[in-house]
Amino acid sequence: MSSSFGKNIVVTIFGESHGNSIGVVIDGLPIGEKIDLEKLNEFMSRRAPGKNKYGTKRKERDLPKFIAGVQDGKIVANTICAVIENSDQRSSDYEQFKDTPRPSHADYVAYMKYGKDFDMRGSGSFSGRLTAPLCIAGGIAKQILEKKGIEVQSHINRVGGISDISLDYANPDMESLKECVKKEIPVVSESAEEEIKNLINRMRDEENSVGAEIECFATGLPVGLGEPNYDSFDAVLAKLIFSIPAVRGFSFGSGFDAVSMTGKEHNDEYVLDGGVKTNTNNAGGVVGGITNGMPIVFRTAIKPTASIGLSQRSFSISESVEKDLEIKGRHDPCIGIRILPVIESMCALAILDFMEY
């Protein structure tokens, strides 16, 4: 089981959803780099559970505690380590799933692969709870990139059938994105925000859930990050994004919309406007696996929360008989509301890992 990724910046996460703590070890960050801890805590709070009525009612502050490699907010060693203490677990909510696996969860495959002693409380190592330490690493990476003029921002592009306004892929409004993440529903459009709130409230009342699509942008990148074929920028980022629990799809630039376009419509023609640029950005900032200096643009599809209160069909592992299952507990009616900082973290870490500093 691998819990590490990266070549130059190596990130390792550890812990379980209902263990005493979760955390991250990061190797390769530049020594002497200052971390704005207040800014990092603000970034972490965007992902933290229990922050508003549209997410899970589990409450965790998710404040990182650095136990190695950081002194007075400065990186002082090649390896740094931070932990987050878990404080609001309800492990009793998960007892029945040891024998009756939840649909669309890892319960069954984890039992078959690792056996009955593997800790699956709160989904264990498969839990979205493990994205909190990823945001420690990603929050630091974002700060380092910002000092180099590189910004990473995102918004909810769609929840169910409700869409946010479209942004210009060649010249995205990063200021609007910075403001929208302060909202309870991180969309640019105020009307879309109200519609999504109503939809999520209805899903909660019906004990159901709904999916989302996240659109992420990165600006200020140089030309030349990535290599052809298997170390391409888009391939590396895609691997990291697909490692996030609940991700069901990923596309760069125009993505699947390219299917209905002609070559003339899809090609990004070059213009000389204070430097080499393209007039459109259907490629999403990557050509031949290498960044071309235009904004990175990608979309991520997030599935509906698998834990719902409605009755579903399952089976008893011990008895080998079918059973009806109703899932109780505290769950997000839409995971996409809190997943934006996780996606931004993976993007920032991928960029930083490709860069030389």
Automatic annotation (TrEMBL):
Pathway the protein contributes to: Metabolic intermediate biosynthesis; chorismate biosynthesis; chorismate from D-erythrose 4-phosphate and phosphoenolpyruvate: step 7/7
Keywords from the UniProt entry: Amino-acid biosynthesis, Aromatic amino acid biosynthesis, FAD, Flavoprotein, FMN, Lyase, NADP
Alphabetized InterPro entries for the sequence: Chorismate_synth (IPR000453), Chorismate_synth_AroC_sf (IPR035904), Chorismate_synthase_CS (IPR020541)
E.C. code: 4.2.3.5
Cofactor(s) required, per the database record: FMNH2
A GO CC annotation given for this chain: cytosol
Binding-site list for NADP(+): 47, 53
Pfam family, one: Chorismate_synt
Alphabetized PROSITE patterns for the sequence: CHORISMATE_SYNTHASE_1 (PS00787), CHORISMATE_SYNTHASE_3 (PS00789)
Cofactor note: Reduced FMN (FMNH(2)).
Binding site for FMN: 288, 303-307, 330
Origin superkingdom: Bacteria
Enzyme class at the top of the EC tree: lyase
Function: This reaction introduces a second double bond into the aromatic ring system.
Record family assignment: Belongs to the chorismate synthase family.
NCBIfam families the UniProt entry points to: aroC (TIGR00033), PRK05382.1 (NF003793)
Protein's UniProt name: Chorismate synthase
The organism of origin for this protein: Peptoniphilus asaccharolyticus DSM 20463
